[in-house]
Amino acid sequence: MIKTFDLPSMESQKSFYGKAIVSTVGNDKYLTSYKTVVCGIVNGKFVKYWNDYSNTTMKHINSFRLFYGLNKIRKSEWDNMECVYEVNPIMNGEQRYKTMMIKQNGYYRYNMG
User: Fold this and answer.
1) In terms of residue numbers, what domain contains 12?
2) Which residues of 8-41 are buried (b: 16+ CB within 10 A; e: fewer)?
3) Which string of b and e fits 64-100 if b means at least 16 CB within 10 Å?
4) Is residue 65 situated within a structural domain?
5) What percent of the chain is predicted at pLDDT more than 90?
6) Is residue 92 part of a domain?
7) In this structure, is the dihedral angle defined by the CA atoms of residues 77, 89, 63 and 98, taken in order, positive or negative?
8) pLDDT band at 46 (very low <50, low <70, confident <90, very high)
9) Can you say whether the dihedral through the CA atoms of 57, 33, 105, 113 is positive or negative?
10) Within a domain: 72
11) Does the pLDDT at position 105 exceed 50?
12) How many domains does the chain have?
């Protein structure tokens, strides 16, 4: 069963106004920022699902990490993290499709795992 709630801001910002949602499936937790699953804590390990960057989403990611007792990370740490290209139970249809494809040289090819 999937449970969801608005991620509380763990810093000076009052609220994320519904733009950062946490979903839990069993003991696993996923962060959705602006309708995209960007990261999670799966089997106790932090996992990156979104291989891009924005200042606002990084605020969501750091609040998610702080909420679950992890340290904040900088952009350089996020950029150097391996992105996991696997479908998870929270992704919508479009994100599931994009996850199955890998963009190379401006073109997508099927991700064979």
Assistant:
1) 2-84
2) ebeeeeeebeebbbbbbeeebbbbbbeebbbbbb
3) bbeeeeeeebeeeebeeeebbeeebebbeeebeeebe
4) yes
5) 58
6) no
7) positive
8) very high
9) positive
10) yes
11) no
12) 1
